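ok so i was messing around last nite and threw this chain in just to see what happens. nothing serious, just curious
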Amino acid sequence: MGERLADGIRREVLEETGLEIEPLQVVEVFERILRDAKGRAEYHYVLVDYLCRVTGGRLCAGDDASRVRWVDRRALSRYRITEGALPVIEKAFHLYEDQQR
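result:
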């Protein structure tokens, strides 16, 4: 609480990957509401995916991950990725490519 979103993204990415980044733009916003057995909201998550540029650091797994690696875009489908994440990653690639033109 009290931390700007962009600062939180920088901090989290550094802690989890060892990379320093610059958030460029929002790619997607997900909202998930998980309900209990009676249908009442138990958890409410809002996830904001950003396109970011690496500005420094060294890729390494944080203490909450067993490993980390760069993966070729064409190989992403071979990995167990959270449902719905692959289309967001593709959207980010398209946004990046549009910025390069």
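not much to say yet. The first strand starts at residue 19 and ends at 35.
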